[in-house]
Amino acid sequence: MRAALGEDQIALQDLARAVARDLGARSIAELPPAVDADRAWTVLAESGLLGVRADGGSVLDLEVCAEEFGAALSAAPFVGASLAGELLGPTDRRPVASLDGRVAVDALGADGVVLVHAGHAHLLDATDHVVTADRSRVAMRPGSDDLVSIRRTDDASFDAIAGVLFGADLVGVGTAAVLDAVDHACARRQFDAPIGSFQAVQHLLADAWVDLCAARHALRAAAW
């Protein structure tokens, strides 16, 4: 695998970061339900990020973008919509994917839920909202109508891509958390010195950063 991102991927990462921050939360008051779902889908579509794969992009391209949406705590359903695209291809609807067939965990503003059943992708209407521990995301249930087969799909391939994207989301969240912790360690003073000058704090932050770098490289290797 390539150890570094190419120029196109760096440009895509910059675009995803700008969009994610535009749609992300800067305070608790900006978390769902105080999020404009229509605007989120419009911005995602107009930026071209929902068409990355249709335009010939790779799973690694999706992984790079997913990290940025995780880091921004964005409720915009980039991961959910991207996984739906893996199953359905381009569509005029707003579908997101469910991994277990019971709930779609990244579903802000979705009008449909895609799931895999018996080797086929099925599209159902999105119905009830589901409260989860993640306040930065909106989860929804698929409808209870009879499943109608849309297209055949490779379960193992879809599960692998889903694992990469949700892993990237977590790495993005972790990266932002460590960077915030570093800023706090530099600003917070104790005993007339920044707490970041204490070795115990430095070691905790360094160990967390090393773990995140290892996780990122593992995910990008898997995506590649």
List the SSEs and their pairings.
Blueprint: H1 7-23, H2 37-47, H3 59-71, H4 78-88, E1 95-97, E2 112-117, E3 120-130, E4 139-142, E5 149-152, H5 155-187, E6 189-190, E7 193-194, H6 199-223
Parallel strand pairs: 1-2
Antiparallel strand pairs: 2-3, 3-4, 3-5, 6-7
Helix pairs in contact: 1-3, 3-5, 3-6, 4-5, 5-6
Task: Describe, in plain words, how this protein is organized in 3D.
Helix 1 (7-23) runs parallel beside helix 3, helix 3 runs antiparallel to helix 6 (199-223) and helix 5 (155-187) packs antiparallel against helix 6 (199-223). The chain contains six helices and seven strands; from the N terminus they run ααααβββββαββα. The chain is of the alpha+beta class. The strands form two sheets. Strands 1, 2, 3, 4 and 5 form a five-stranded mixed sheet that branches. Strands 6-7 form a two-stranded antiparallel sheet. It starts with 6 loop residues before the first helix and ends with a helix.
Please tell me how large the radius of gyration is: 19 Å
Total number of β-strand segments? 7
Distance between the termini: 6 Å
Question: Count of helices?
Answer: 6
Oligomeric organization of the protein chains? single chain
Sheet of most strands: 5 strands, mixed
Instruction: Tell me the β content.
Output: 5-15%
What gross morphology would you assign? globular
Low-confidence segments: none
- Average pLDDT taken over every residue: 90
The share of residues in helices is: 40-55%
**Sequence of secondary-structure elements:** HHHHEEEEEHEEH
